[in-house]
Write a structure and sequence with these properties.
Blueprint: E1 2-3, E2 20-21, E3 24-25, H1 26-34, E4 43-44, H2 49-53, E5 59-60, H3 70-80, E6 85-90, H4 100-110, E7 115-123, E8 129-141, H5 145-153, E9 168-172, H6 185-200, H7 211-221, E10 228-232, E11 245-246, E12 256-257, E13 261-264, E14 275-283, E15 297-301, E16 313-316, E17 322-324, E18 327-330, E19 341-342, E20 353-355, H8 363-371, E21 376-380, E22 384-390, E23 394-395, E24 406-407, H9 410-421, E25 424-431, H10 435-448, E26 451-455, H11 466-473, E27 474-480, E28 483-484, E29 488-496, E30 499-506, H12 510-528, E31 539-543, E32 554-563, E33 569-573, H13 583-586, E34 590-594, E35 606-611
Parallel strand pairs: 1-4, 1-6, 4-5, 7-9, 14-15, 22-25, 22-26, 23-24, 26-30, 28-32, 31-33
Antiparallel strand pairs: 2-3, 6-8, 7-8, 10-21, 11-20, 12-19, 13-15, 13-16, 14-18, 17-18, 27-29, 29-30, 31-35, 32-33, 32-34, 34-35
This protein binds ligand LQZAQKY5, molybdate ion (MOO) and magnesium ion.
C-alpha cells in the first residue's frame, strides 16, 4: 500500500502524490520503485481517485472520515488485504530502497515478528549518531488489525503509537537518503533543480571547465525570484520592471509644433512665387488662441503648441523671407507641406508597450514613464544576497592587524559590486576556517537569502573546509575553470530547514573574487533578478604592448583604455597581474578579455576589452 491520502498541508493542501517530479509525479516514482517488490498494489487516497487509478493500481479511501492520517489508510488496507503480509510506503519518498520489502520480510520471518520497520542512523545536533525509525516504511502481518482498530477507536493517530504489545523487528538501512521525503514545495523545487545541475554537467569535466560552459550551466540552473512590488516612480531607478509598461496615452497627445514660427495649411504654398499669409494671432505651448487660420492666413506658433485646426506645416521664424506688420512672406521652396510638425503618438502610441518587462530602469526610462503620467511601477522584488569571507588570517577594518594576517578586502569589493547590481545585502562578516562555524553560517544564509556569495576556501588547501560543508548541504559542483585569475569555484544550491539558496563559492584571492563575480555571479544574479542580461559588450582596441598569454584558457587582464594620438583606441595592461594584486583592478578602467584560443599578443594586435563604466 502506498499512502497518498494526506492533506498535503505543507504544500498548500495540494495532492502531494500528484505533484510533478522529474518528468512524472512523486507517486509515480514511489510506485516505480515499490511495485516490483510486492505481489499486489493499492494506493490509499481520499481524493483525486481517477488520477491515482490511472497509475494502474486500485485506489482505496479511508473508512474513517476526515483525513485521519496514514493509520486510517492502513486500517482500510488491512481490512481488505488478500495477502498474509502488508507492506507500506509513503507517496512522497521517490528514492525508497529497492530491497526494502525483501529485507523487511527476511527480518519479520527470522524474528517471527508481527511487524518490521526500517531504521537508519542519523547524526543529531551534536554530531552523535542517533537511531531514526521510519514506521511508514513497514511490513506487517494482517493479523495485527484488531490492535490497530482498538488504537484508532481510542483516538490514537501516531504512526507507531499502536506498536505497543506487538513484536517489532527493526531493520537497519545504511542509505538514510533513500528515506528522504518531500514535504514542501521548496523541497520539491529543490529536488527538481538538484537533478538539473547534475544533468547539465554530465558531459563536462569539473577539473577543466571552459569559461563559456560554466556560464551556460549557471545561467540554465538559476531561477528568477518570484515576488513583485509596486514602487513610486523614482524608487524604480535600477530596479527590474516586472511587467510591460503599456502606454495609457499618446505621447505627444496632439500634433504640435517642433519650431517657433508660423503655422498654416501647407497646400497653399507655391513652388515658384512667394506665398503671402496674414498673421491672425499667436498660439503658445499650453495656451492656444482658439483661432483657426483660413485660406491666406497663418498663426504665430511656439514650439510645443498644439497645431491649430486646418494647419499641417510650420515655417521656422528665421526662415521667413519677410514679416511686415501682420503679413508673412514665404520664399518658394523654403518649407515643404507637413514640415516641423510632431505627430500625436510619434513617441509612444496609446495601448502599445512603452517598456518591456525585464528592463532595468535607467534615467531615460524614468523620464519616459513620467511622460506617460504613471506614478507607480511594478518591479521585481530585490534579490537578497548573503555574503561572507572565510579565513583565519582575515581581520576586519578597525581591528589591529596581527602578525601574518591581512585585512578582509573581499567583503568590501563584494559589497560594492552587489550594491551596484541592486541586490539587498546580508553582510555576514568573516567566518573562521572552522567546519562548525562554516556550516552554521551557510545554514543561516539559506534562511535569509536567495543567493550566497562566499570568498575563499574553495581551493585544495588543508584549511579549505568550505567545499566539504557546501557539498553536504546540497548539490554543489566544484570546478577548476580554464581561466586566470579565478580558477577554482564552487557553484550550486544548498538548503537547510526547507529554505534553499544558490551558492557562489568564489576563490579567495582579491582579484580572482572580483573577476569570477563579474563573469559568473553577476549574469546569474541578473537572471535571478528577472533582468534581461545582454551579452558582454566587448570593444576592440589595439594593444600598446605585447601581452604574454597561454593558449587554452581565458585570461582577464586589467587594462587602461585610452584614445591614442591618431584617434584610435589603445589599451595598456596595468602592470603586475597577480591575482592578489588588487591595485591592478583599481588602476584599470577595463578588462582585456583574451579568449581560450588566443596565444601571445604582439604590440599593435587587436584585443577585446570590457569597459567598467559607461554612462550611468
Ligand atoms: N595547490 C594549489 N594551490 C592553489 C591553487 C591550485 O590550483 N592548487 N589555486 C590557487 C588559486 S588560482 C587561487 S584563486 C586560490 C584560491 O584559494 P581559496 O579559494 O581556497 O582561498 P584561500 O586559500 O582562502 O585564500 C587565497 C588567498 O586570498 C587571500 N584572501 C582570502 N580571503 C580574503 C579576503 N576576504 N580579503 C583579502 N584577502 C583574502 C588569502 O589570504 C590567500 O592569500 O588558491 C590558490 N592555491
Ligand atoms: O583564482 Mo586564482 O586567482 O587564478 O589565483
Ligand atoms: Mg585555499
Amino acid at each position: 500500500m502506498i499512502f497518498a491520502g494526506g492533506r498535503g498541508s505543507r504544500m498548500g493542501n495540494v495532492d502531494k502524490g500528484l505533484q510533478p517530479f522529474r518528468g512524472s509525479t512523486l507517486v509515480a516514482h514511489a510506485l516505480q520503485r515499490f511495485a516490483p517488490q510486492v505481489t499486489a498494489l493499492t494506493i490509499s487516497a481520499n481524493r483525486s481517485h481517477e488520477a491515482y487509478a490511472a497509475l494502474g493500481a486500485p485506489v482505496l479511501a479511508d473508512d474513517l472520515a476526515g483525513f485521519a492520517g496514514p493509520l486510517a489508510g492502513l486500517q482500510a488496507g488491512l481490512r481488505r488485504c488478500a495477502t498474509p503480509l502488508l507492506a507500506t510506503v509513503p507517496c512522497d519518498s521517490p528514492f525508497l530502497p529497492e530491497d526494502l520489502v525483501q529485507r523487511l520480510r527476511d527480518a519479520l520471518l527470522a524474528q517471527d515478528a508481527d511487524l518490521a520497520l526500517a531504521v537508519t542512523m542519523e547524526a543529531d545536533d551534536t554530531g552523535a549518531a542517533r537511531k531514526q525509525a521510519h514506521p511508514v516504511f513497514s511490513l506487517m502481518k494482517t493479523g495485527v488489525l484488531p490492535r490497530l482498530d482498538a488504537y484508532l477507536a481510542r483516538g490514537g493517530r501516531k504512526m507507531d503509537g499502536w506498536h505497543e504489545g506487538l513484536k517489532v523487528a527493526e531493520v537497519l538501512f545504511t542509505d538514510a537518503a533513500a528515506f528522504r521525503n518531500i514535504n514542501t514545495r521548496e523541497e520539491l523545487l529543490a529536488e527538481e533543480r538538484a537533478k538539473r545541475l547534475a544533468d547539465l554537467t554530465t558531459d563536462l569535466d569539473p577539473g577543466a571547465m571552459p569559461v563559456r560552459r560554466a556560464r551556460q550551466v549557471i545561467e540554465q540552473f538559476v531561477r528568477p525570484v518570484r515576488g513583485v512590488e509596486k514602487v513610486a516612480l523614482r524608487a524604480a531607478l535600477g530596479r527590474v520592471l516586472a511587467e510591460d509598461v503599456i502606454s495609457p496615452i499618446n505621447v505627444p497627445a496632439h500634433d504640435n509644433s517642433a519650431m517657433d514660427g508660423f503655422a498654416f495649411a501647407g497646400a497653399q504654398l507655391s513652388a515658384d512665387h512667394p506665398t503671402k499669409l496674414k498673421v491672425i494671432g499667436t498660439d503658445f505651448a499650453g495656451r492656444p488662441s482658439g483661432l483657426q487660420p483660413g485660406p491666406g492666413q497663418c498663426l504665430r506658433i511656439m514650439t510645443g503648441a498644439v497645431m491649430p485646426a486646418g494647419c499641417d506645416t510650420v515655417l521656422p521664424q528665421e526662415h521667413a523671407a519677410g514679416i511686415d506688420d501682420d503679413c508673412l512672406t514665404i520664399a518658394p521652396r523654403s518649407v515643404r507641406p507637413g514640415d516641423n510638425r510632431r505627430l500625436a503618438g510619434e513617441d509612444l502610441m496609446a495601448g502599445r508597450p512603452a517598456l518591456a518587462a525585464g528592463k532595468i530602469v535607467r534615467p531615460a526610462d524614468l523620464g519616459l514613464i513620467a511622460s506617460l503620467g504613471i506614478a507607480e511601477v511594478p518591479v521585481r522584488r530585490r534579490v537578497r544576497v548573503a555574503f561572507f569571507s572565510t579565513g583565519d588570517e582575515l581581520r576586519s577594518v578597525g581591528e589591529p592587524l596581527a602578525q601574518g594576517c591581512v585585512y578582509d578586502s573581499n567583503r568590501y569589493t563584494l559589497f560594492g559590486m552587489l550594491t551596484r547590481l541592486g541586490c539587498e545585502l546580508v553582510d555576514m562578516g568573516i567566518v573562521k576556517d572552522d567546519p562548525a562555524a562554516l556550516e552554521a553560517a551557510l545554514r543561516d544564509a539559506c534562511q535569509s537569502a536567495d543567493a550566497i556569495v562566499t570568498s575563499g576556501g574553495v581551493s585544495a588547501g588543508a584549511a579549505d573546509y568550505t567545499r566539504d560543508i557546501m557539498a553536504r548541504l546540497g548539490e554543489v559542483a566544484f570546478w577548476t575553470i580554464g581561466m586566470r585569475p579565478g580558477r577554482p569555484m564552487a557553484f550550486g544550491r544548498i538548503g537547510a530547514d526547507g529554505h534553499d539558496a544558490f551558492l557562489f563559492g568564489l576563490p579567495g584571492n582579491p582579484v580572482a573574487v572580483m573577476v569570477s563575480f563579474y563573469f559568473f555571479a553577476r549574469p546569474a544574479l541578473l537572471r535571478m533578478m528577472g533582468a534581461d542580461a545582454p551579452a558582454d559588450l566587448l570593444v576592440q582596441a589595439r594593444s600598446a604592448e605585447p601581452i604574454r598569454k597561454r593558449q587554452g584558457r581565458t585570461e582577464f587582464q586589467r587594462g587602461v583604455l585610452s584614445i591614442a594620438a591618431d584617434g584610435t583606441r589603445e589599451v595598456r595592461i596595468t602592470g603586475a597581474q597577480g591575482s592578489g594584486i588588487l591595485r591592478s583592478m583599481t588602476e584599470a578602467n577595463c578588462i582585456v578579455v583574451l579568449p581560450d584560443e588566443q596565444a601571445n599578443v604582439a604590440a599593435g594586435d587587436l584585443v577585446e576589452v570590457l569597459m567598467f563604466e559607461g554612462l550611468l
